Amino acid sequence: MQNRTVLCFGDSNTHGTIAMETTTDRRRHAKADRWPSVMEAQLGAEWDVVAEGHPGRTSVFDDPIEGAHKNGLRALLTALESHRPIDLVILMLGTNDLKARFSLSANDIALGIQRLTVDILRSDTGPDGQAPRVLLAAPVIATETGIFVDIFAGAAEKSRALPDKLHNVAAQQHVGFIDLNAVAETDPVDGIHLDAAAQSAIGLAMARAVSDLMT
Length: 215
Description:
By secondary structure, this protein is α/β, with parallel strands linked by helices. The chain has a single domain, classed as 3-Layer(aba) Sandwich (Rossmann fold), CATH 3.40.50. The chain is built from six helices and five strands; from the N terminus they run βααβαβαβαβα. It has a five-stranded parallel beta sheet, with helices on both faces. α2 crosses α6, α3 packs parallel to α4 and α4 packs parallel to α5.
């Protein structure tokens, strides 16, 4: 029997970026400590987990400073076709959309993630040419501190509103949903990224959510 595949499509917190002390800080958690690896270990040998985390990735928006390649919509279909057949896609995005340069509301951010969700559900990259299942993950609420205090100015309030917006998207599209704020907080060093304990807690919570959704 072929293993089931989960594609984790996310940003720097899926990549495993350690809270940044400077703008050139490129440290990364050890692979075993990143949440996709923790989830894979918990799910067992019958599952293959693909960690597709791109630092700075938005949902559907070109970044005028960091580059158009940060747009998740541009990368989504390539990732889906590269790893098919995919049983489940976990979408964990929205944090970078909070940057002040985009001037987006929580509702607009949720609509961007809805666009990705619809594209996945319309694809043929699941088993037998069907669409994969989808699990929307509301990212951990951002705080305005450290080196990102200006870049993410105004993010905290919008971030707090995002889980409810994403829950509504999940209900409308009939896909799974998990609010990661129930199990983790951001690292106070930069208010955006996760420490090892939060990565582990998210991996365990994701494993439970995947098991519930896929059984």
